[in-house]
Write a sequence for this structure.
């Protein structure tokens, strides 16, 4: 089974061989390193850029304007903040320009906490990102989705932001990517660059197949009637784990929805599940003031107020200036398994 | 901001127009550019100017709101537009313009009514469907990248189009234009850095339109370096300061710059010293400034050369005025955007989007 970062790499390879990707670029993206998380090793279109995030986003826009299909990377979303006006323009240019230009660009950014990254390797970006109309924003929580959503990001002719949960980049999934060898050691030997001198190394790519995971389609990861849990990214596997534990310990059964696509989001799936359970908890790790989960909460209140059995709620990161390095800070700033489990138990068991 | 800029601390030298060095005699002499070409440039300048002046009027009469535009930059901009390799795609020149480039668009062939449609905020405005300020052009057929109000961002994008052009082959180049105050933004440095990566230099023609002003802030009060293009030196980017009020000097400077970029596939810088004839925008009242007027100056030279007579000049102005008025009338009768148009043109069609296979239609349902 591939890791998430291998899945992304394979998707980019499929993109440059089958979907017209012309440039994969960013800081340390090209050889010899192939990305600080190895997402871009061995790609024939990968190149290193100057250390200039505004230049990276702007150049991707220019490439897309000129008919290329760029995938650019900001090394950590924590360093994307100085590009926000360019991201705004990438999102609004088609609208502002009366549809003159499409802008088929992909921006990928490792995002969120979980690697003991301290202040500037732990930020979340999705709430900021959802304030950029014109973009599509996805955040896979497993390698299979990472592959399929990256292919969709490439195939979509609009700006697409792929937020990669840093904490999950080395995680393996349960589903084989089409074309991927079943043996993970074999895959590693084929596509992971060796340590040391790589100047003569060439990847041997598996015979990958097309597999689009469409935007706006959530996946139901656990099914139940006790409550609806909606999450994505790093906190999603924690919600699944908590659901399993609460199932065996208390006999509770949850609908756990992996949103996958943050914008557009699968409102139908959320809505149908809330109608079924009357109880809903949104879980993410972005900071709690003006959090994307609050938007979903607002829609639940607007459209399902009278369908709810208990108050709907959001579990999210604390509104503090950063995530501190000492793990006491991190563990108490962004949702971890115990808090998630407790919040899920509470929403499922509060008297109606 | 009304009136004349205060004399700069360096006794005005910063605003002294420096004739092109390579061929001293050509810079102020009409005779070095063919008569037909000069007359063509003149007509474009007049048409662009009268369009802008009418739009200033519209901003004051309530027919439009905000005005910003290019009076004072017509000489350079017309000479630029006429030398663009016009077309769609990387084989042709890309234009990353700022909001004072009307005369470039007119030189490319934009009918005046299209500029007026934008001022009029009509849905028929081909550049923004009545959404953007005037002078914010976008035209895919001519590689005109959508102009944004955000100062200098076009300099962050220029390397991208040029990168594709270099890979594509041919002689297409990327032209990026901005004011001298905006060149303080990091995006200007980004453009120099990205277009001079060793072995990966890019055909970018970097143009700084130096009118001496930000909105109310003089260049010399903020910058120790007199000319913006001096910043190109450490990058090995050649450049030239040109009298942007002189269409002939501008023509030859642009010709030389373009030749270099097309052939060498490397960046080049031009700094055009220009007037700002109606202040920053309508928000400063757009009063007529006491600065050299490129049209009046050019007409004097054309007259002195015997290439035009006053009667013909008057006729050209009258024709331009009639064209503008016809454009105002025509666009005035056209439909405004409708409430249901607010989402239009957000997304291109997608085969992988379940919610928005076509355009945006409001929040997911
Ligand atoms: C990033 C940004 N900051 C500030 C502004 C507000 N603003 C609009 S024009 C302008 C001055 C621009 O001066 P210059 O670059 O010299 O161009 P000019 O208008 O003189 O042609 C300012 C400060 C803006 N539009 N964008």
């Amino acid at each position: 089974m591939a890791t998430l970062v291998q899945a992304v790499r394979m998707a980019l390879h499929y993109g440059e061989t089958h979907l017209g990707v012309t440039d994969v670029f960013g800081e340390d993206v090209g050889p010899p390193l192939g990305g600080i998380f190895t997402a871009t090793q061995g790609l024939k279109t990968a190149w290193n850029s100057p250390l200039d995030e505004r230049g990276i986003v702007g150049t991707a826009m220019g490439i897309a304007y000129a008919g290329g299909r760029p995938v650019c990377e900001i090394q950590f979303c924590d360093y994307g903040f100085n590009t926000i006006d360019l991201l705004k323009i990438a999102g609004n240019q088609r609208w502002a320009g009366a549809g003159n230009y499409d802008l088929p660009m992909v921006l990928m950014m490792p995002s969120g906490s979980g690697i003991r990254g301290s202040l500037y390797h732990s930020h979340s970006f999705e709430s900021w990102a959802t304030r950029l109309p014109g973009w599509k924003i996805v955040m896979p929580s497993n390698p299979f989705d990472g592959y399929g959503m990256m292919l969709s990001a490439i195939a979509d002719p609009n700006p697409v932001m792929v937020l990669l949960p840093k904490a999950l980049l080395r995680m393996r999934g349960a589903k084989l990517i089409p074309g991927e060898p079943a043996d993970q050691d074999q895959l590693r030997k084929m596509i992971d660059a060796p340590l040391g001198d790589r100047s003569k190394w060439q990847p041997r790519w598996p015979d990958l197949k097309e597999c689009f995971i469409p935007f706006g389609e959530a996946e139901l990861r656990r099914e139940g009637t006790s409550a609806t849990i909606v999450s994505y990214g790093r906190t999603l596997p924690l919600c699944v784990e908590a659901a399993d534990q609460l199932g065996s310990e208390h006999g509770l059964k949850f609908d756990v929805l992996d949103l996958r696509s943050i914008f557009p989001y699968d409102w139908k799936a959320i809505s149908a599940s809330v109608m079924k359970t009357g109880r809903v908890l949104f879980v993410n790790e972005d900071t709690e003031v003006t959090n994307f989960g609050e938007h979903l909460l607002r829609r639940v209140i607007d459209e399902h107020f009278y369908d709810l059995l208990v108050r709907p709620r959001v579990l999210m990161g604390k509104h503090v200036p950063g995530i501190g390095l000492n793990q006491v800070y991190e563990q108490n700033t962004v949702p971890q398994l115990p808090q998630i489990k407790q919040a899920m138990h509470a929403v499922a068991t509060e008297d109606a | 901001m009304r009136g004349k800029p205060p004399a700069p601390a360096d006794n005005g030298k910063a605003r002294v127009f420096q004739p092109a060095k390579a061929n001293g005699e050509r810079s102020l002499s009409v005779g070095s550019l063919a008569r037909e070409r000069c007359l063509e440039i003149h007509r474009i300048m007049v048409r662009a100017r009268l369009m802008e002046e009418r739009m200033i009027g519209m901003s004051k009469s309530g027919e439009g709101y905000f005005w910003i535009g290019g009076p004072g930059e017509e000489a350079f901009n017309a000479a630029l537009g006429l030398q663009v390799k016009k077309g769609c795609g990387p084989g042709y020149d890309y234009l990353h313009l700022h909001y004072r480039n009307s005369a470039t668009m007119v030189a490319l062939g934009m009918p005046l009514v299209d500029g007026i449609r934008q001022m009029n905020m009509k849905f028929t405005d081909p550049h923004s469907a009545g959404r953007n300020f005037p002078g914010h052009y976008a035209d895919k057929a001519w590689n005109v990248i959508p102009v944004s109000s955000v100062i200098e961002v076009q300099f962050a994008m220029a390397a991208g189009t040029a990168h594709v052009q270099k890979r594509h082959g041919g002689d297409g180049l990327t032209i990026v234009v901005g004011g001298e105050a905006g060149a303080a933004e990091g995006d200007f440095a980004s453009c120099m850095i990205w277009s001079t990566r060793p072995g990966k230099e890019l055909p970018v023609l970097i143009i700084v339109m130096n009118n001496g002003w930000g909105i109310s802030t003089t260049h010399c009060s903020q910058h120790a370096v007199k000319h913006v293009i001096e910043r190109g030196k450490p990058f090995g980017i050649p450049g030239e300061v040109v009298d942007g009020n002189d269409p002939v000097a501008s023509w030859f400077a642009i010709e030389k710059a373009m030749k270099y970029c097309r052939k060498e596939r490397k960046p080049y810088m031009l700094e055009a010293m220009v007037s700002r004839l109606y202040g920053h925008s309508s928000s400063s009242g757009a009063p007529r400034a006491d600065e050299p007027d490129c049209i009046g100056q050019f007409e004097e030279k054309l007259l002195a050369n015997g290439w035009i007579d006053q009667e013909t000049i008057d006729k050209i102005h009258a024709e331009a005025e009639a064209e503008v008025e016809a454009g105002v009338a025509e666009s005035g009768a056209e439909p405004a955007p409708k409430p249901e148009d607010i989402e239009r043109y957000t997304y291109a069609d997608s085969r992988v989007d379940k919610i928005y296979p076509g355009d945006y239609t409001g929040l997911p349902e």
Q: What stands out?
A: The pocket of thiamine diphosphate is lined by residues B 100, 149-151, 178-182, 209, 211, 213-215, 280 (CB under 6 Å). Chain B touches chain A through 55 residues (CB under 8 Å). Chain B has one domain: 35-334.
